[in-house]
Amino acid sequence: LTIMGEARMDPNPSPPDSTAQQDSLFSMTDVFLISLIVGLFTYWFFFRKKKEEVPDLPKMQTVVAPQRDSSFIEKMKKTGRNIVVFYGSQTGTAEEFANRLSKDAHRYGLRGMAADPEEYDLSDLSRLSEIDKSLAVFCMATYGEGDPTDNAQDFYDWLQEADTDLSGLRFAVFGLGNKTYEHFNAMGKYVDKRLEELGAQRIFELGLGDDDGNLEEDFITWREQFWPAVCEHFGVEATGEESSIRQYELVVHTDVNMNKVYTGEMGRLKSYENQKPPFDAKNPFLAKVTENRKLNEGGERHLMHLELDISNSKIRYESGDHVAVYPANDSSLVNQIGEILGTDLDTVMSLNNLDEESNKKHPFPCPTSYRTALTYYLDITNPPRTNVLYELAQYATDTGEQERLRKMASSAAEGKALYLSWVVEARRNILAILQDMPSLRPPIDHLCELLPRLQARYYSIASSSKVHPNSIHICAVTVEYKTKTGRLNKGVATNWLKNKVPDQNGSSSLVPVYVRKSQFRLPFKPSTPVIMIGPGTGIAPFIGFIQERAWLKEQGKEVGETVLYYGCRHEREDYLYREELARFQKEGVLTQLHVAFSRDQAEKVYVQHLLKKNKENIWKLVNEGMAHIYVCGDARNMARDVQNTFYEIVSEFGNMSQAQAVDYVKKLMTKGRYSLDVWS
Q1: CATH number, domain with residue 629
Q2: Which is catalytic among the residues 124, 218, 574, 677?
Q3: Is position 251 within any domain?
């Protein structure tokens, strides 16, 4: 602006010689007055010009700012696609399945694209019929208690409110769920039902994948019947055998500015060096570990309590929320992969999408080194899916190993059984497969393209922000087990957290985190009784709940009955937070504490047994006291057994049939009086 102002002043130079000629005609006072007037006029003139021109600057900026194209229809037309596969994904699996389906399309003379519903305007579904042989496929995961995933929330909201005519739309849905949860595959079922209600035509039946069983097999079984249905509907045929098509091309950077290279950041380059709120999945906060102590006094397991400092982060949380942690893979596993593949892991490279129109330019942040990719961005510890085995098979020089890989990736019953036993049940990760197949030596860049992303791990927060506004507490157990092949497998996040040492400078005590909101909430009225059931590390959110109830009591609030049912294996080994619970009970905040020690006697005792023992008191709290019930921990057995126990209690004391008791408990859930925070 200064330069522009100076440029405008140049055409108006003051003429000094003409002023000299006037000296004899005017007194000094006149000269002063004239100079003052001229000066004021000049100042006003330029000030006025600036005021007029300033508003033009924002207009220039808005013209330059790029507009995001939110129409997937226009993109499909532009790139010649006719199949779009939308994914609702929380952990990356639904996105992976969507990518596999979109790649399949070329075998039938069709062209597919995977799409994140968060990036597009889904009301355009009504226009999909403008494209010949068009089809929309939805790979939808269910999260939490029947909820949509974060990236599918807007799509879900739109579906609920939409009255659009989708009669020209052809669709199919594959749902990803887990049968141990109450609302199995709720999102997949809802999308399938709602699209039909809006007039869309289902061309193949809803697929229901179960992660408690074998999700990969469920998907393959659905997929092998889905494509023949597509062929029949559109009158097309398979063009040949499944072939390996690279999605990304490798670019090796020999002369690169290391300040432009990603070193583990999730989104913005250098975001770990220059932290800026708000913090979320793409911009986690580096929290310092201020405490890391072992909770159990004995036994083989390692149960731990960690405290993360969130001072100056502007992160806010409530009791019952989850903290997401981005872990790193074990460096020894990364080094072994590098050694087996004969690769310099510090090579800086980029994997660039061959489809220039794709919104996803790289499979992970690039440019980066292979070491960084294998440490922070890629999942190297879970058994790889069948599509990875199929793509890798071409690199096995031994025909027997190549056939074995292809067989496991096939849809034949024998192949599925082999994949289940040799990969899934044996818990073989990519390193184990490379070790057990000496002729399999794929290029490391193709391996990096195929491996799924390393996902954040979620933990129920074990603290109250009312008591600890600048700290988030985690309660976790390290995962470690022997596989059928004799290998020792370790949980990525828990073993990484175990080694986070407080009070050390540098990255050794830093943990990338963000908070995800939950529906697991204390009652609005502090006087409402609460019944908390959380064995093992399921006690975590209840430590936060009890801290908050103690704080409310200190504030002079009337606090209702606070009842905890907790369980562990042995009283002398893994009774977590024993001292804290005893203190809360002594202070009168924790009004009832019932602990089941499952292995301290011949017959195992669990939390549900203690609930039955106190069934009359439970019914009184629920029926008369309008108590809220909270269950946290294992979904497969504990949560189901506890729920069945409540059915029995309600049936007995409420004089109801089994069906009526089930309906009663379901209504408690609908009203937010029976909440679950469970995992399988």
Answers
A1: 3.40.50.80
A2: 677
A3: no
Q: Which domain holds residue 415?
A: 328-454
Q: In sequence order, which ranges of 452-539 are alpha helices (DSSP H)?
A: 492-498
Please tell me the predicted confidence (pLDDT) of residue 502. Answer: 87
600 part of the active site: no
290 and 424 housed in the same domain: no
Residues 81, 216: one domain? yes
> Same domain for 339 and 406?
yes
Summarize the confidence of residues 392-401 as an average pLDDT: 97
332 catalytic per annotation: no
Please confirm, yes or no, whether 632 is among the known catalytic residues.
Answer: yes
Contacts of 554 (CB under 8 A, 6+ apart): none
Number of domains in the chain: 4
Tokens representing 228 are 């023949």
For the stretch 300-325, pLDDT in tens is: 899 999 999 999 999 999 999 999 99
pLDDT at 625 exceeding the cut of 50: yes
- Considering the domain architecture, whether residues 286 and 194 belong to the same structural domain is answered as no
User: Do both 489 and 571 map to the same domain?
Assistant: no
How many Å apart are CA 393 and CA 618, to the nearest integer? 58
Nearest in space to 473 (alpha carbons), one of 630, 587, 278, 319: 319
User: Is 475 considered catalytic here?
Assistant: no
- pTM assigned to the model: 0.86
Q: How many Cα atoms are found within 13 Å in the side-chain-facing hemisphere of 276?
A: 6
Question: In this structure, are 357 and 304 located in the same domain?
Answer: no
Tokens representing residue 19 in the block: 């002023």
Catalytic option among 271, 460, 463, 518: 460
Across all residues in the chain, what is the average pLDDT? Answer: 89
Q: Are strands 170-177 and 201-202 parallel, antiparallel or unpaired?
A: parallel
pLDDT band at 679 (very low <50, low <70, confident <90, very high): confident
Residue 10 per-residue DSSP state: T
Q: Which residues are CB-neighbours of 216 under 8 A, at least 6 positions away?
A: 385, 386, 419, 424
Residue at which a domain ends, from 518, 543, 563 = 518
Q: Is residue 427 part of a domain?
A: yes
Give the chain's end-to-end CA distance (angstroms, integer).
Answer: 62
Task: Work out whether the CA dihedral 118, 119, 122, 123 comes out positive or negative.
Answer: positive
Q: Using alpha carbons, select from 164, 229, 161, 154 the residue that is nearest to residue 200.
A: 164
Do 448 and 534 share a structural domain? no
CATH number at residue 365: 1.20.990.10
- pLDDT for 238: 81
Q: pLDDT tens for residues 479-536?
A: 999 999 999 999 999 999 999 988 756 567 999 999 999 999 999 999 999 999 999 9
Of 309, 632, 634, 675, the catalytic one is 632
Q: Do residues 486 and 432 share a domain?
A: no
Residue found under tokens 């890989």: 405
List CB contacts of 624: < 8 A, sequence separation 6 or more: none
pLDDT at 501: 86
- Is 368 inside any structural domain? yes
**7 within some domain:** no
CA distance 645 to 456: 34
Where does 54-201 have alpha helices with state H? 56-64, 72-79, 93-104, 153-161, 186-197
Among 454, 478, 494, give the residue marking a domain's end. Answer: 454
